[in-house]
Amino acid sequence: MSSADTLQAFKRDGRIAIVGASLAGLRAAEALRAEGFTGSLTMIGDEVGEPYDRPPLSKQVLTGWVPAGGTTLPRRRDIDAEWLLGVPADGLDLATNHVHLADGREVPFDRVLISTGVRARPWFVESEADLDGVFVVRTREHADGLQRALAAGPSRVLVIGAGFTGSEIASICRERDIPVTVAELAPAPLVGALGAMIGEVASDMQRAHGVDLRCGVKVTHLEGDAQGHFRRAHFSDGSTIDADVAVVALGGIRNTDWLRDSGLAAGVWGIACDTGCRALTLDGLITDDIFVAGDVARCPNPIYEYRLISLEHWANAVEQAEVAAHNMVSAQADRWPHLSIPTFWSIQFGVNIKSVGVPTFADEVVVTQGSVPDHRFVAAYGYQGRVTAAVSFNNAKWLDHYRQLIETAAPFPPPCPTPDGPADAKPVPVDFPSPQLLAQGATVVVTGHDPSERRVTAAWQHR
């Protein structure tokens, strides 16, 4: 049988399992059917309900504008799949091509897509995390519970962590006229994702809207009352605050623990893969039947020196899922690379923040357009003399221009394309925090080189 006949037989009768039934998993399943795959398709997910959209959880659900149950992802086509929901995967056997489920079942496959995504990083003391009034925001149930707590009119909300999610929650609290304290170990909000200069702008923005922003301090203890409700927080500088609600917004943990003994190059930053979304083994070999997509993938990008990059972006999950699905049912010569430039957006304190490129892959940053005091500007990021990213505050219409600069390796600093360029703009060091803080706040993380990373054994971090 020729290779073309083998591929057609697989598209007709093959078995594909998708582990992770959220945005990337659903879009990959739809793409597989659109590509003509008529074999068996199994969707495995640890949550009980149908796939839903996560960005609205911290943007619309907490305001009460959209109910948590209204975030279900639309179906673009019938995928005719077997759904195994409410039971997580807890192992992957590459020798026998089986996914092991936590309830003891085994799911056979010819090819598998891993899109297990990210879970919220919990508060580090379990008894304190279990206090009534302590929340994380990752699932629909999390958002629904927090929305009801905010609607009850708490005397004060404590937000632990000032990345994008924490800052958006603080913004929603101020919109609802709820007093809010934000505690951030780094010197400023958003510093892990966008660097020190933008962090200063974010600090000014929060304080101007009445946020009690405390940077450079750590929450050391959450105290509850006799009824088990959160009442007080203790800080590393010896101070305390009283509050009724605490939101732990310390970033996410990529769901790779279940792959510990699989032989894949999986760890705290995700699963290493090539630009075709094929997973790598611990030896650096490319697998041909294991594919990765979404937040859990570490994918190289030629624009960023082929370094492995982890993204927590909605658009990336969709694009990568479609590339992975196409490659799962295509011959080698017909496969696509995933080479898109990352984009991200956030709305907080009345400001629309958007980015293009990878800000964490930069050594300098400069304001190229607009006015920082007016919170209407564009900042360009550069690495060794070329443009690598841009961030806009209420000025997103120019980001396509900066995307072109990134794609063509334009010199940094770039000239201002409009008459509103600052007269004295000079590049400054981008000044990102330590990798530990990047894990809590960045939505794009550069995690190493592909060709030169050769690892045969895995040393797992103890938590």
UniProtKB/TrEMBL annotation:
Residues 15-321 form the FAD/NAD(P)-binding domain. It comes from the Bacteria. Residues 344-413 form the Reductase C-terminal domain. Transmembrane segments: none annotated. Keywords: FAD, Flavoprotein, Oxidoreductase. The keyword Transport does not apply. This is NAD(P)/FAD-dependent oxidoreductase. It comes from Streptomyces caniferus.
